Amino acid sequence: MPRTSMHVTSAGPTQSSSVLRGNEPLSESPNIHPTSRTVSKMSSQSLTSHLLSLHQEKFTRATQSPFLARAASGTLPKSLISHWLANDRLYMQGYIRLSGELLRILQLPARPTPSKSAGCVSLRLLDWLVDALVNIRREERFFMDVAERFNLDVDLTEDNAQGSIPQDKKIEGLKRYEELFDSLTSGQTSETLLPWLEGVVLFWATEKVYFEAWSWAKRQAEGAGTKYEEDADGGAMRKEFIPNWTNDEFIKFVDTLEAILNEGVEEAHGGDETLRRRIEERAEKIWNQLLDAEEAFWPETEGN
Fold this sequence. Notes:
It is built from 10 helices and 4 strands; from the N terminus they run E-E-E-E-H-H-H-H-H-H-H-H-H-H. By secondary structure, the chain is mainly alpha-helical. The chain has a two-stranded antiparallel ribbon with strand order 1-2. The chain has a two-stranded antiparallel ribbon with strand order 3-4. Helix 4 runs antiparallel to helix 5 (about 120-150), helix 6 (about 170-185) packs antiparallel against helix 10 (about 275-295) and helix 9 (about 250-270) packs antiparallel against helix 10 (about 275-295). InterPro entries: Haem_Oase-like_multi-hlx (IPR016084), Polyketide-peptide_reg (IPR053261). It comes from Pseudopithomyces chartarum.
């Protein structure tokens, strides 16, 4: 999916000074008018910055795996790429289901929004989800196009009428993602404060980690030359996939959701530290589970 790259070090990503709100630069800590409730010192740290400060060793493992290093060097066998791509395509199905659930629970404003206005948080989230659905379908078609051109088999279905997929063909990361998606699409949430929080945190986190991972791989590939046809996969990774997953449009897409998420959270707690902490705890749970799933999504390679 289309995902400017943030430098990743062993301690995690560096923090940018701003994110985007629509087309305008926005401080990560927008000026929210505090209420008369318990107002703290108004920490300047946004929710996403808070999450990125946690579990940094996990973050590194999720974004700097041996699989990514092999992809950058063009030494991954087609069989391993095929199996990983097939699982990544199945991940998209959960992504689509979660998009539908978030669209279902969004509370849209009754008052009309001026045509040139970006709108409130819920309207901007609506726009992002619509774009995400368009992007995920385009991404799947891109997967299939590259797979066909480079002879990669991405079909895990059994040869039967049902076309079912055996559990043993699913990598651990996909299984963990399926559990996450299932938990967020059951329609049984009792949360009235930001009912979309967990789903949006999951979307931001998976896109953020994916972009950081492939940006790291892209840096490893610098100076490796462009004789892609000599790669073990014929150039599928270095010529097609890595450029696709590290382009400017991708990070703009991620930054847009980050701005929506942070602003929605700031509006919801309004400076009330009890509410802020409650929101953070809910988001932390998803972030931790997401990092585990991302780390487990990278297949093992020879020697690791």
